Amino acid sequence: MQVFITGGTGLIGSAVVAELLEHGHRVLALTRSDTSTKAAEAAGAETIRGGLADLDVVRAGAARSDGVIHLAFGNDFSSPEAVAAAVAEETAALTALGEELTGSDRPLVTVSGTPWVAGRLSTEDDPLPLEGPVGGRGRTANSILALAARGVRSSSVRLPRTVHNHGEGGFAGLLTQIARQSGVSGYPGDGTQRWPAVHAVDAAVLFRLALENAPAGTAWHAVDDEGDAVRDIAEVIGRRLGLPVRQVPEETFGPLGGIFAADQPSSSAHTRATLGWTPTHPKLLADLENLQP
């Protein structure tokens, strides 16, 4: 099938494009710059120029395709206002995609984060948080799943806190970035809180499986590591970068500080059993060994 993808040149998106092409699909990628256009075309995708805010372009991409995978999201986490703006932009784009696909029975695969539940691993049956810094994304993901009642084979792949490749990406990548800037490999809280993780190439396989096979209105967990202690993550980063490792205030991590400090392990048992998803790439702590000083 021809698949329209947003965010197709990012860490996750580039892996998804490669996975789709390898399995015989054609890809139409939304690109907003000359650099991303060249990268997508070099990977073998056709491109359509625009960003998430260009709703007419977003609709046109969906109209030309047999299915859609949405991955694009603003990367500015510097303030609550910046996060809210990114959520609003994503919501408008997904609403436009849903309107274009209504009544077609075509697949629309969106993305969210895994939920967290006090005292246990979260599962695919647990609801997403609807309040707080990422609550808007949860509400939008729920509205997309509700399109199942309007003739869209909608599904959601819930990504863990860290989607990584060669030691880069996700929350662990943010810890690395802050460590390089501050000279300290820091962690919030006592560091025993756990973050789930997955390699980007394994996550890409799940996006393809959801596109091809997921029933309408379903959510799936792209979780390989159920929960790595944040202190263990910071220790590998500190060793690889030659930096001291210590606890730092939550405020160091801006509007995501409270999320960084939360214990949020997650399971993908249902996803593995139902869709046949089997991660095969390095786990987070091993992949962080690829970090260069």
TrEMBL record:
<dbReference type="InterPro" id="IPR036291">
    <property type="entry name" value="NAD(P)-bd_dom_sf"/>
</dbReference>
<dbReference type="InterPro" id="IPR001509">
    <property type="entry name" value="Epimerase_deHydtase"/>
</dbReference>
<feature type="domain" description="NAD-dependent epimerase/dehydratase">
    <location>
        <begin position="3"/>
        <end position="216"/>
    </location>
</feature>
<protein>
    <submittedName>
        <fullName>3-beta hydroxysteroid dehydrogenase</fullName>
    </submittedName>
</protein>
<dbReference type="GO" id="GO:0004029">
    <property type="term" value="F:aldehyde dehydrogenase (NAD+) activity"/>
</dbReference>
<dbReference type="Pfam" id="PF01370">
    <property type="entry name" value="Epimerase"/>
</dbReference>
<dbReference type="GO" id="GO:0005737">
    <property type="term" value="C:cytoplasm"/>
</dbReference>
<dbReference type="InterPro" id="IPR051783">
    <property type="entry name" value="NAD(P)-dependent_oxidoreduct"/>
</dbReference>
